[in-house]
């Protein structure tokens, strides 16, 4: 099962493919704390990858808190209790955003056309008088009904017809905009902030009002560097952790 999953992925670097496959196996219970975790040599042989690829994949999972690597005793899957039930999710590139969407589910509703909230318009530095097509979604991890995010998404008015025809059963709006609107993503920016849950957000996330949340404000630009989608996601502080892999380039 694990081998089939990685063989099917072609779009991402091999270490990302392997980390995604192992992550899914851990979260599904296929790889559990009670079982022997494959050695680096086993992973190299099974998946036909280099030791460097294996080490990079394992390092990502360690940063996410899913595994522990101990010199002399190998790699072990950390128990769910040790992870505090928190989703440790890397969101550093488009491939990982898509993996996040794959490992979770979201239910969107269309909120009609409106101007951007003034605070978001000021943060993104766009005119406050433009019309955007608005959506709101509640995201949950598969197998866990508790929400891990409330996402407000806004699609620029020049893509109005495409936005209004979006299939709300699909979780990635930007991919549908790419395909139906002939839009090519040029870059994505992210701003991450610790905020307090408003009355509205706290009700939807099922957390106390003013409790700690992680807000990710993401802006999608096309190949001509025109902003076409904005999303603002609020995550409960005790159910979501953002992780990033940083290389030492010195």
TrEMBL record:
Cross-referenced Pfam families: GntR, UTRA
Superkingdom of origin organism: Bacteria
Matches recorded under InterPro entries: Bact_HTH_transcr_reg, Chorismate_lyase_/UTRA_dom_sf, Tscrpt_reg_HTH_GntR, UTRA, WH-like_DNA-bd_sf, WH_DNA-bd_sf
Keywords carried by this UniProt record: DNA-binding, Transcription, Transcription regulation
Record flagged with keyword Transcription: yes
HTH gntR-type domain mapped to chain residues: 12-80
Keyword tRNA-binding found: no
PANTHER family named among the record's database cross-references: MANNOSYL-D-GLYCERATE TRANSPORT/METABOLISM SYSTEM REPRESSOR MNGR-RELATED, MANNOSYL-D-GLYCERATE TRANSPORT_METABOLISM SYSTEM REPRESSOR MNGR-RELATED
Designated name of the protein: GntR family transcriptional regulator
Organism: Sphingomonas hylomeconis
């Amino acid at each position: 099962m694990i081998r089939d999953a990685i063989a099917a992925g072609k779009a991402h670097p091999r270490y990302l493919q392997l980390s995604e496959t192992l992550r899914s196996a851990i979260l599904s219970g296929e790889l559990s704390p009670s079982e022997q975790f494959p050695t680096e040599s086993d992973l190299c042989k099974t998946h036909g990858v280099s030791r460097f690829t294996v080490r990079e994949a394992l390092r990502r999972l360690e940063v996410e808190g899913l595994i522990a690597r101990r010199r002399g005793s190998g790699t072990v899957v950390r128990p769910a209790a040790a992870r505090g039930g928190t989703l440790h999710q890397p969101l550093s590139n488009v491939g990982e955003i898509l993996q996040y969407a794959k490992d979770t589910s979201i239910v969107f509703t269309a909120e009609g056309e409106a101007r951007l909230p003034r605070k978001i318009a000021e943060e993104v530095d766009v005119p406050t008088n433009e019309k955007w097509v608005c959506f709101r979604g509640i995201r949950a991890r598969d197998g866990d009904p508790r929400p891990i995010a409330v996402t407000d998404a806004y699609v620029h008015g020049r893509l109005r017809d495409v936005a209004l025809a979006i299939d709300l059963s699909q979780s990635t709006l930007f991919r549908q905009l790419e395909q139906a609107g002939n839009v090519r993503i040029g870059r994505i920016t992210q701003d991450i902030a610790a905020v307090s849950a408003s009355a509205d957000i706290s009700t939807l996330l099922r957390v106390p009002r003013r409790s700690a949340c992680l807000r990710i404000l993401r802006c999608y630009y096309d190949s001509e560097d025109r902003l076409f989608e904005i999303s603002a996601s609020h995550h409960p502080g005790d159910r979501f952790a953002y992780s990033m892999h940083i290389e030492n380039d010195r």
